[in-house]
């Protein structure tokens, strides 16, 4: 038996490849499917099944493309409705893959079709469970994404409690838990950075599996402090229920080189968005005026989904040379299929022809603290998430989370200068790029963000947690 986890850090997402005696199965595939096909060919096996744990909200799965290319059967749990052919599996139904098997356990709660898959080896012994968004390492799936007229968040949380108690907790402690997501995903509140664990250890350490937790307390716990879901989540669910453009078509269109004049013409068209995916340092040193920065070497796909409000937006790209196709692929993972090409030669082509360039000033963390101290910095912004802010922040700096930038940017004063920081210097540049595109030209990025600020000579600046500034 072969069992391999394909973990994509950008999405904090786990896909699983399982093979035995000439047959293979894929659980929760990403949009790009060729790596699974190549791996099966290398192992000399045929992909027989494609299992979905649920209709994912945070990425577009490649299950339909993979089925078309391999002839594999798509399997989804009870309550699933789609516009493509699939096998609607029943609770406890078993599927053989070579000499091993996967048994579907229907575990509604995160969504109503949510299911886990229990792996038994050649001897019929339970070895692992693929839990999707039902059970994470250290957490459980949020219960607010599948709310309908007849189902409230509390209803779903109640279903989740029952699913965990009835289907997962009775399983033996030695089996390995393989979830669909880890730390950084918006599908839970406080997931571990670990991407697998024994079920026995999760029973000891995961609050949701505490046997003394009442159903009422569980519902209260999992429904409290949930951040609003990114706006693209419903569209990704809809896409995962339907047939989309093939990934090959999407990449072919987006991976089109554009000469400077063609790129400029599209950049001046209000229907097009210029997306710059270079590093924060490169972007602040010089960029196409009005472009949006979201760097590839960060939480690229989730921020694209959160901040590019129209999932059908036409996009042209400024990328590091050699990473054009990667950029298009990673956009497609979250359903942004309308990339129309990239600037040939990258930003250097723009800069070397004398085209107008926008810049963002950078200051060190110590320069920022000194400016707060002498009051030369009057409008600081903390662009982190509420949980980060509550864990520790500067008393003199208000929170303007990046998630809310589109609503808040219109409240900024174009005549003022704003100094922006985040956790490490990535999100602050995103915030600054959006502010500039909305006419707030005097924005300054604090290099290294809050991590660097904590290491400075703070002088009279006070770091506090929660609301203790008022004490």
Structure report:
The protein has three domains: 2-234, Metallo-beta-lactamase, Chain A, CATH 3.60.15.10; 245-351, Rhodanese-like domain (Oxidized Rhodanese, domain 1); 361-470, Oxidized Rhodanese, domain 1 (3-Layer(aba) Sandwich), CATH 3.40.250. A hairpin with a 4-residue loop joins strand 1 (2-8) and strand 2. The model has no long low-confidence stretch (mean pLDDT 95). It has 471 residues and is α/β, with parallel strands linked by helices. The termini are far apart. Strands 1-2-3-4-5-6 form a six-stranded mixed sheet, covered by helices on one side. It is 29% helix and 21% strand. It is globular, with a radius of gyration of 24 Å.
């Amino acid at each position: 038996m072969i069992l391999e986890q394909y973990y994509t850090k950008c999405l904090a997402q786990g896909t699983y490849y399982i093979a035995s005696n000439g047959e293979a199965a894929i659980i929760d595939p990403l949009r790009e499917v060729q790596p699974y096909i190549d791996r099966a060919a290398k192992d000399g096996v045929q992909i027989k099944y494609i299992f979905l744990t649920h209709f994912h909200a945070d990425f577009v799965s490649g299950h339909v493309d993979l089925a078309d290319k391999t002839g594999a059967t798509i399997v989804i749990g009870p309550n699933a409705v789609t516009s493509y052919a699939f096998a609607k599996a029943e609770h406890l139904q078993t599927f053989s893959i070579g000499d091993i098997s996967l048994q579907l356990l229907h575990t509604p709660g995160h969504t109503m079709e949510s299911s886990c898959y229990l792996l038994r080896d050649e001897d019929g012994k339970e070895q692992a469970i693929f839990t999707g968004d039902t059970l994470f390492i250290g957490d459980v799936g949020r219960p607010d994404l599948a709310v309908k007229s007849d189902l409230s968040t509390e209803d779903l949380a109640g279903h989740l409690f029952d699913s965990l108690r009835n289907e997962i907790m009775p399983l033996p402690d030695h089996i390995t838990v393989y979830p669909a997501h880890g730390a950084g995903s918006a599908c839970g509140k406080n997931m571990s950075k670990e991407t697998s664990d024994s079920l026995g250890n999760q029973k000891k350490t995961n609050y949701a599996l505490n046997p003394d937790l009442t159903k009422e307390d569980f519902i209260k716990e999992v429904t409290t402090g949930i951040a609003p879901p990114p706006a693209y989540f419903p569209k990704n669910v809809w896409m995962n229920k339907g047939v989309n453009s093939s990934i090959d078509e999407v990449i072919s269109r987006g991976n089109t080189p554009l000469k400077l004049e063609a790129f400029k013409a599209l950049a001046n068209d209000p229907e097009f968005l210029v997306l710059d995916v270079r590093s924060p340092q490169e972007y602040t040193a010089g960029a196409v005026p009005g472009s949006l920065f979201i760097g590839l070497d960060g939480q690229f796909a989730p921020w694209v989904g959160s901040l590019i409000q129209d999932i059908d937006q036409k996009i042209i790209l400024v990328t590091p040379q050699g990473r054009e196709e990667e950029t298009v692929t990673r956009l497609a993972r979250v359903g942004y299929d309308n990339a129309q090409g990239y600037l040939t030669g990258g930003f250097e082509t723009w800069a070397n022809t004398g085209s107008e360039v926008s810049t963002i000033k950078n200051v060190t963390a110590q320069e920022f603290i000194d400016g707060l101290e002498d009051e030369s910095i009057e409008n600081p912004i903390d662009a982190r998430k509420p949980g980060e802010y509550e864990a520790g922040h500067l008393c003199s700096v208000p929170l303007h989370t990046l998630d809310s930038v589109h609503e808040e940017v219109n409240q900024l004063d174009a005549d003022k200068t704003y100094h922006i920081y985040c956790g490490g210097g990535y999100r602050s540049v995103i915030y600054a790029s959006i502010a500039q595109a909305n006419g707030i030209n005097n924005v300054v990025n604090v290099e290294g963000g809050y991590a660097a600020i904590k290491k400075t000579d703070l002088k009279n600046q006070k770091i506090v947690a929660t609301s203790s500034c008022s004490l």
